[in-house]
Structure formats: C-alpha cells, structure tokens
Write a structure and sequence with these properties.
Largest sheet of chain A: 6 strands, mixed
Number of helices of chain A: 9
Shape of chain B: flat
Order of helices and strands of chain A: EEEHEEHEHHHEHEHEEHH
Number of strands of chain B: 0
Helix content of chain A: 25-40%
Radius of gyration of chain B: 20 Å
Helix content of chain B: over 70%
Structural class of chain A: alpha/beta
Largest sheet of chain B: none
Oligomer: heterodimer
Number of helices of chain B: 8
Structural class of chain B: mainly alpha
Shape of chain A: globular
Strand content of chain B: under 5%
Chain lengths: 240, 208
C-alpha cells in the first residue's frame, strides 16, 4: 500500500531523511519511534506530499507521488492525517469540520455527508458535540474530532503524527482508544508516537529511527524487550 | 461623498484581496508585480495621484485624441481612491492571511483540498475576521480622503461646502461639513476600537 524507496529529504543543508526504505501492507499498524529530530514526523509528511523529497520515490497504492503527472490531491484523499496540534478549523462546528472535505472535494451530497459525519462523531464518542465549535472542546475531544474528520474522506490509510503529545495526561487514553478501535477494524496505520504501551499492544511492527535512517524494525514486543542495535537500546532505556 | 466611498471601498477591497493573494503566490512574477504595485502606490500622495488621473491623463487624452483617458471627476476620484487604497488594503489582507496558523493550510491540504479551495473555505474566512478592525480604520481614513477629490472638482462634501462659502461669505458651510465628517467617523472609530479589543481577547484561541 505504501512503498518508500531511498527517500532523501533536506531542509537547506540539513539532511533529515537519508535514504529510507519502507513497505507497509494493508491493515498493518506500523509504529515509528525515535528521538526528536530523527526524521519520523518528516517521514509521515512526505508520505502525503506535505513535504517534497529530493531523492527517491513515495508510492501510494501504485501511484508515485514524485512523478510529475501525479495529482497529489487525489492521493491525499486516500491518506488521512492527524496532527499533533489538532488543526481543527476554528470557524466551523465539529460536524462542519467533518463535512467540508467530503462535500467540497468529493462532491458528495450534503445530506449524505451529514449522515456519515454524524455516524463518525458517534463512533469517536462525540455525538453530543456536533454543533460545538473547536474552542469549546477539550484537547482530547478536539483530537477525536480531527480523527473523525480524516476518516470522513474514507481514506485507505491513516497517518498519526504524535497525536497525543499535546494532550494533558488524563486525555491521552480517550484518543488512544479511538486509534485502537480503528486498528482492530483493519485500518492501515502509520503512527509516530512516544506511547510505548500503544506500540506494544496495537502495533504490528515497530520502527526505530535515528538521524534520518531506519535503525531497527521488527515485532514491537521483541524490539521493546530485546533491542539489537546499540542506539535502540540507549533510546529505550531513556523512554521506558 | 457617498458614491466615492461606496465604489472606492468596494473596488479597493477587491483589488487589495487580489494583490495580497498575488503577493503570497508561489510564482515569483506575480509576487514581484504585486509588491512593486503596493510599494509604489503606498509611497505616492493621493492628492498627486488624483490630480494626475484627472488633469494629467485628461491632457494626454486631448493631445492624442484617446478620449477614454478623459475622465469625469467622480470616476477619476473613484479610480484614484481604488488604486491607492487597494495597495493599503492589500497589506492588511496579506497580514491577515499570514496570521492564520500554517497548520490550517496543512490540515486542509491533507484532506485533499487544492490550494484554491483551502484558501476559499479555510484560510480566507478566518483571515476576514482578523482584518475587520484594520479595514474599519481604512474606511475612516478613506472617508476623510474623499475630501481630496474636491481638488478635481468632484462634487463631494468639501467641494460643496466651499461653493456655499463663496455664496454666503461665512465659515458656516465648512463647519457643517466638518460636523458631517465627524458624524460618520466617530462611530466608526469607536467600533474599530471595540473590535480590536475583542480580537485581542480571542486572539489566543486563533489557530487551534
């Protein structure tokens, strides 16, 4: 579903990604960990074309993002993304946040989009917040709306970029629960996180990145309990 | 005064919006053109611009026989106000658009929206709220600047007052004109101040 080949990304003279290869198949839940500045968020942003890359290929369902003729907007419809800072649209209600892209991008009828959006809000436990504006919601609620908003486009895969890092500790679990449900329903997910519990419990594969490279990857339990690489060992000693 | 204001305001806001979008475009030529326009017309005295459009272009029109260059006072004044205030409001719109957190654009794009749709549905509606107070201040300045149109004989308030003064030989018409200006501007000054205070309070929540 997702295929990265020799991906290089530079910001000026700073090389953030230095040749990343990654294949993700359907229904996999790939958890990416690593110290800050290791390039894990950048990697996610390259997958839906928010960051252009300098070398290599990003191939989503057979479509090469780096190809000149590729319409990146069509690919993005298939790739949902959730951000650390929620990025809900503050001038729209929760329901309108969900309905906007399906009606304006996919051209779906309003009634249909409304029904689907209401279902999605119910799924993330916020059916009583449809007409609420984002600034009236807690961080955890906002992030759940953001997940539902991405799901409203009926994507084939979801990218989660440190989605619990900006939350108060007591609000983390409500967001992780939604993500767990999603994983159990078979959604293909790429999750950048510091939540090792989530990685162990839900992840089908764990990737440790450092200095723009994938250092180690494998089954989450094995890597967490017995990391092979010295850098992975050092990182896990600090976070666990 | 009313028609100068209504048309001048309308056209200058439209021009300003387009100039600001050009200024933020990824195409260098559009950015450069807009930047050059804005700098030039912000640096030019409106009085000179009005005089040039009415008398200067009028003279060229008569010399060359290009009759469309000869404008009546009112259209000439509207054109001058639009060109000048378009440059001012472009800077206001640009600042308003840039004040919206970049995460908003990213979120919109990540949902498959094009740049244009993201601007239209996400960025501009939020930017419009931000620019209301500074645009109100623009409106106040424009109300006062319509008086400049009297030098090109546009029949606006000050022009009329001076006519009357010639007849009555008293300063009363001028005083009357002053009262009319102030009746329009003072409420707007109050409104702008209130809007600014309100925005200052809710500003912390912008960009969420």
């Amino acid at each position: 579903m997702i295929k990265l080949e020799d991906v290089h990304k530079r910001f000026g003279s700073l090389e953030v990604l230095r040749g990343v290869d990654l294949h993700v198949s359907k229904s996999e839940v790939v958890v990416i960990i690593g110290p800050s500045g290791s390039g894990k968020s950048t990697l996610l942003r390259c997958i839906n074309g928010l960051e252009p890359i300098q070398r290599g290929h990003v191939i989503i369902e057979g479509i090469d993002l780096t190809h000149r003729d590729t319409n990146v907007n069509q690919v993005r419809e298939k790739v949902g993304m959730v951000f650390q800072s929620f990025n809900l649209f503050p001038h729209l209600t929760a329901l309108e946040n969900l309905m906007l892209a399906p009606t304006k991008v996919q051209g779906r009828p309003k009634a249909e989009a409304r029904e689907m959006s209401e279902d999605l809000l119910q799924r993330v436990g916020l059916s009583d917040k449809t007409d609420t504006y984002p600034d009236q919601l807690s961080g955890g609620q906002q992030q759940r709306v953001a997940i539902a908003r991405a799901l409203a486009m009926q994507p084939d895969m979801m990218l989660f970029d440190e989605v619990t890092s900006a939350l108060d500790p007591e609000l983390v679990s409500e967001v992780l629960e939604v993500m767990k449900d999603l994983a159990h329903e078979g959604m293909t997910m790429l999750v950048v996180t510091h939540e090792m519990g989530f990685a162990r419990e839900v992840g089908t594969r764990l990737i440790f990145m450092d200095e723009g490279l994938i250092v180690e990857e494998g089954a989450p339990r094995e890597i967490i309990s017995a990391p092979q690489e010295e850098r992975t060992q050092r990182f896990l000693r600090v976070v666990l | 005064m009313a028609e100068l204001l209504v048309f001048g305001l309308f056209f200058s806001f439209i021009l300003g919006l387009f100039l600001s979008l050009m200024r933020l475009s990824r195409f260098r030529l559009l950015r450069w053109t807009s930047g050059a326009y804005i700098d030039f017309f912000r640096g030019l005295p409106l009085l000179l611009l009005l005089t040039f459009i009415y008398y200067g272009l009028g003279l060229v029109g008569m010399e060359t026989g290009l009759r469309f260059l000869i404008l009546d006072p009112v259209p000439a004044a509207i054109l001058g106000l639009t060109m000048c205030y378009g440059a001012y409001s472009a800077e206001i719109f640009r600042a308003g658009i840039e004040s919206i957190h970049f995460g908003q654009m990213e979120a919109a794009r990540s949902l498959g929206m094009t740049y244009t749709k993201s601007m239209r549905y996400i960025i501009l509606p939020q930017a419009m709220r931000v620019v209301v107070p500074p645009l109100t201040n623009e409106l106040i300045a424009m109300i006062k600047d319509t008086a400049l149109a009297s030098v090109i004989t546009a029949p606006e308030l000050l022009f009329r007052a001076r006519e009357k003064m010639g007849v009555t030989a008293s300063p009363t018409p001028l005083t009357g004109a002053a009262v009319v200006y102030v009746i329009f501007t003072i409420p707007l000054i109050r409104i702008a101040a209130r809007l600014e205070r309100k925005q200052g309070r809710s500003g912390a929540m912008a960009g969420m």
